[in-house]
Each structure stands twice: as C-alpha cells, then as structure tokens.
Queue: 2 jobs
Job 1
Amino acid sequence: MIDDPIRWGILGTAGIAESSFLPALRQAGDGLAVSVASRDGERARSWAAEHDVARGVAGYEDVVADPEVEAIYVPLPNGLHAEWTIAALEAGKAVLCEKPLCVTPDETGRVLATADAASVPLWEAFVFPFHHQIERVRDALAGGRIGEVREIASRFHFVLDDPQDIRLSAELGGGSLYDVGCYPIRLARLLFDAEPDLDRAIADAVWTGSRVDTELWGALTFPGDRRLVFSCGFVAAYDTFSRVLGTEGEIRMTNPFHPEADDTFAIVRGEDVQEHAAAPAGEHSFTAAIRHIHGVLRGREQPRNLAVDEAMGNATAIEALLAAASRPTA
Ligand SMILES: NC(=O)c1ccc[n+]([C@@H]2O[C@H](COP(=O)([O-])OP(=O)(O)OC[C@H]3O[C@@H](n4cnc5c(N)ncnc54)[C@H](OP(=O)(O)O)[C@@H]3O)[C@@H](O)[C@H]2O)c1
C-alpha cells in the first residue's frame, strides 16, 4: 500500500495518456489515477476499466470538481488546453498540461496569471528537462567540455498518416511547430539559458489548405549570435537527432526528448568520443517528471521547470516563427 498517494484526474481518453502518462504514473509508484473524463460517458467508463482507473465520467467538469482529485493531467487537443487548464487551476488543482501549454502568447498569459492567482503549481509537459541526460549535458557544457556553444542543430520529425488526427486541424491547434517543433525551441532555451531575439526569427513552411504546417524549418538567434537551427514535420521518418556545437567540440544526442534504452549522447572533441547511455533501462520518459511533481505536492522537493517560469518563452518564439513562415490567415 502507498501512504497518501497523489490522486490524479485525467481529461480525455487521449493516446498519450495511455502510452506515456499512465505507465509512468505506475512506475513512479506513489500516485493513482482515480478518474478519467471523456466527452462520451461510455468511452470514459470502458477506458477506465481497461486502464485500471477507478472512475470514468462524462464531461471534463466532473473531474475538475471532484474533491478526491488533487492533480489533473490535461492531454486534450492544443486548442482546448487554456480553457481546461484554467478551470482546473481555479478549482485549486495542480496541473500537468500537455505541450504546447497554449496556442498563443495571449492565452499563455491568461493561464499563467490564473496559476499565479491560484497559487497552485502548473507544469507544461516537456518531460526531458527532468531527465538525467539533460543534467549530464548541462554539466558538460558548464564544465567547458566543448568550449563555447555556438549553435544547436535539432530536428523532430515523424510520419503522420491519419488524416483525422487532431494535429491536422487548425481549429484544434494543429501543426508541426506546435506539435514537435516546440521541442527544439525548448531545448535551445534550456541549454543557452537565454531567450531568443524574436525580431530575428527566420522560418519557412509547407502549409495545407486548412492552414496547418506539415513541415517547418528555421532559426532563432540567441544573445551573442548563438543560434538554434531546426526543422520539424509530419512527413519524414521519425528522427530527433540533435547536436550542440561548440568552439572545441560537440555533443550529439540521438534523442534529447524521449530517449529509450538504445539512445545515447556523445561528447566529441576531435578524435575523442565519449558515448553515454541516454536513459536508465526500462524508465519511461515521463517518470522523472511525475516523480518530481509528486515530490513537490508532498513537500519533499522545491518545484522546478514550472510553466510560470518557462512557458511564455516558447509561446512567443512559436508565434514569431509562425509569422516568419507567413502563416496563412483564416
Ligand atoms: N509530451 C509528449 O510527449 C506528448 C506526446 C504526444 C502528444 N502530446 C500532446 O498531448 C495532447 C493530446 O495528444 P494525443 O496524441 O494523445 O491526442 P488524442 O489521442 O487525439 O487525444 C486527445 C483527446 O482529447 C479529447 N478531445 C476533446 N475534444 C476533441 C476533439 N474535438 N477532437 C478530438 N479529440 C478531442 C478526446 O478525448 P475524449 O473523446 O475522451 O473526450 C481525445 O482522446 C496534445 O496536446 C499533444 O501535443 C504530448
């Protein structure tokens, strides 16, 4: 038996809740999913039974209002994140909202103001800043192992073959920059420990007739003319390979965002290549973040990577890149 587990509610029977959140919650070991809500009550009940969640209910508001629920996971389409994150925060729940937290800086500002007023923690579900790999990479950079970092080259691509996917709906906040391009941006802001000059954003994209970018590529310039050069999309085979390039060497990460057992990061100086495992064997990508959230909610840890500190920088960079790529108007 777990003493006083964190009781989670989930909004939506989402694919990511099944594939990533719930396995990591089980692995973290000190939390329980007590309720899942769906637009469809029957779907909620069968999903709950299948995934060992205590209750399945019709309507997201039931989970938000549930007094047993202490923390809420929001894996809804991007266009619904702001509305339901605000509702959960106003009900006094801690929130883990999927990335991107919102689709505009205005929405982001409203959500962050609500979190501030409610004095409850809110995280945007970038889980990689909690990974051991990123700590090791940051240590290597701080220790000057590759000299001064000049450039980060990063990509996040996969093949999206379902025409009904939420990622292809402009109304629901679809598009490859929102979906996966947000990762290289977060990586660069984290490793440069700075914000980009938005007036210098460069981007181009392939747009569908319904105003969704299926591929996007570009650059963000950071103080000191350091830069992120990146691409993202729904067309090319899965790849997240990223390089941190310095004056004396580079760090190569086969998967900075969701590393698996066979992923590595290598610190390279000339002929000297030191390769390390990127993730502990068997550890789910979300587990470190969920352990941290539980630690914060039980007073064992100080919060890190809170949305109030981190989310606006990504939102404004995304907006600048979409403008630079001439996003079609509605
Ligand atoms: N952090 C990560 O690694 C990661 C990975 C993948 C996805 N994500 C994020 O997680 C979120 C969900 O992605 P997903 O791939 O899990 O999507 P998904 O499987 O399509 O799930 C989205 C859920 O939202 C609910 N929903 C509410 N209104 C909807 C509408 N109009 N159309 C479709 N669904 C609607 C549905 O639940 P009900 O029908 O039960 O209400 C649906 O199951 C997105 O924000 C995405 O960016 C994050």
Note: The chain has two domains: 6-125+287-306, 128-281+313-324.
Job 2
Amino acid sequence: MTIRFIHSADIHLGKTYRSSANESERYEDFFTMLAVIVADAIRERVDFVLIAGDLFHTGQILPRTFARTIETLQPLKDAAIPCVAVEGNHDWIHRRDSISWMEALSQMGYIRLLRPSRTENGGYRFDPFDPESGAGGHLRIGELNLYGLGYIGAQAGNHVARICEAVSTRNNLLLFHVGLWNYSPVEIGNMQPLEALPLAEVFDYVALGHGHKPYIAATPEGRAYAFNPGAPERVNFGEEKYDKGYYHVTVDQGRYTHQFRSTSPRPMLVTTINLEGAGNADLALERFRSQIAAALPDSGDGRRPLLEVRLAGRVAFHPFELGRERLRLLLDELCRPLHVEIKNHLSLVTSCGETETVQKSLAEIERDVLAGLISANSRYQGREQELVTLSLAIRDQVLKGDPDGEELLSLLSGVV
Ligand SMILES: [Mn+2]
C-alpha cells in the first residue's frame, strides 16, 4: 500500500512587525503559506500532513491568531486529512499549569499533537494518541508508526539512546524539532550528526524542523534518513537566499521518495551599502539610491519587499545626517518596502593637518552615551559594558518589531 504525505515545518503563524504600519499584510504572509500547503494536501489527497514544530511564532498568541489558524486548517479537517504536529521552541509553553494553544488545537481535532511522556528514570514513553484528550506520543496511520518529540532543548543529542529504546515497532517515522550541525543555520538546538545517527536504525524517516533552510542528512552508507523542509516563508532576515518550500513524500513498500515543492515567499533583501569616501550627505544619498536599485529583488508579482540595509564606510559628513527618516523616504520612493531595518555603521573622517582621523561610528557613539547614562547610577558602576550590551540587545529585539515577552525576559535573566 502506498502512503503519501506532506512534511512541512516552521510556519511561524502570528509573526508580524508590530511597530510597522503594514503589520497586517506581513501577518497574512504566514497564513497564506499554511493555506497553500493545506490546499495542496487536499488537491493531492495525501494521507496526512506533518508540521515539525513552530506552527506558531510565539507560545502566547493573540486570540485572532488562534481564530485564523482554525479557519486555515478547517479544510484539512473537513477533508479528514490528519494534521500531525509537534511543538517547536517557539510554541513551547514552559508553564505546566496552563494549557498551550497547541494542546487546544489538538483537543479540538485540528491537529494531532504528539508529545512523549517521561518515565521516572528519565526514559521516554510514547503513549498511543488519544483523540479524546488530544494527547499522546504515538499514532498509527496505515502501516506507518508516527512518533513525535517536539523541542527537547539544547542537549537533544544526549537523549537519542533513550528515544530509540522507547520504540519497539517497525515502519517508524519520527517528528523531531531539532537541527543537525553542519546543516542547520541556527546556533542553538542542534545535535551532532554522529549523535543523531542511531535514529536512522529505528526510524526510516526523521521529519525535522527548526532550521529554516532545507537539508537532508544521510547515513555513512549514503541512505537519506533525516529531512528538514525549512520554513515555507522567509521568517527572519538572513533567510533571503534559502530555498523555501516543503516536501511531498511517498512511501511504497517501506521505500521513501521525496520531492521538494517550492513556495513563493515575500521578497527580502539584506544588503550593505558602501558609502566609503562620500563627501557630503547628498552625494551619499545618490550612491545609496543607485546601489539599492541595483540590489532590489524582483518578486514578479509586485509584492512589497522586506529590507535590511547596513550603511558602511568612512564619510566626510556626520553620519547622523543620513537619518532613518530620510532613508525611509527614499526607499519608499524606490520600492515601497513593507518593512525596513537600517543599521548605520558609517564613521566620520576629518582631516587634521596631514593626518586623517577616523571618528567614532554611530554604533560606538551609542555605546558611549549608554555607558555614560548607566555609570551615572552608582549601583551600576563597574558593570557598564555588560549593561550596555544588554540594553542594545533589548533595543534590537524591539526594533525588529516582534518582541516576545519571554525572549526579552530571558535576556534579562542572563544578567541577574
Ligand atoms: Mn522556527
């Protein structure tokens, strides 16, 4: 019997730029991607859909995000195509006393949330999934045994032996929100490929999520066993060059074949504009205009791009003259970006007789000003650099436009 399924991951519903006037358009991007996957699943009449973690961008979502998710998943539920999911690091809820949004979706029958139980001596137990309570770690579909782990933290590699011990069936598939070093572009939450390898003996297909870039890992004998589809939309700056999509997988007599289906994410540009040697702000602005125009991606469908622009070089005018608002106006004229982040790393060069002096860059001035403010309070003296770094990290999160309360708190708890 042939089984066909879709393997997707990292949908990140609920992400937007709260500080931006265009937040609702960006907010819809992620629902559009889920709707594309749902429509494909129904058109192809697949047997099930996998979501390998990070369905939601944050653990605490807005009520409207929950409502939109239900609306988007409804056709799948109506078509009786199971949507099997695990939690990622983004939709993980730490508080044990509150029910997570993922659990709620599972109880309502929109997803089947797989999550293992732990035994007293630290082992894993995959209880059969109970549709009534929406809980369990193991689900059988056709001849396949599906197991789900979600995100288990930064030490996932140490758990592989215990995970394998907990499985005694054959024809196994594992949903696991974890990255593999050498492949995964993210820093935290990865396993070494050698640590992961024992999974290949127990599971024919390991459905990964987490790193937003697609990759496939193979055993030393060359058998592909772990697959990461990446995120279907560009979630963060830095993802502009990754292929975006999800897998269609066919299982025929225990043999897996996969096909990557590309999605059409919003255009994104990350670029450094070199203004080295610019004599005044007007000249710099002209160079800025022509370099941006040359670098702009063409979406082909008129969708407004997301831009991260870094200004670099030593210039002969004060970097403050190229203020954010001035650059924004120019960018609006050029390409009406949906969202812009500008990093001003220009430094001022002045001539003092024969020698040139490089004055401080905007970033250095910021640090100095903050250090001055912080050291004015005697309780903080001696910790200026640490607190400056913390302040800037919080500032960066807030400027990104989607500060998650828990992420901000975790920055603070690293210091206290
Ligand atoms: Mn993710």
Note: The CA atoms of residues 35 and 230 lie 17 Å apart.
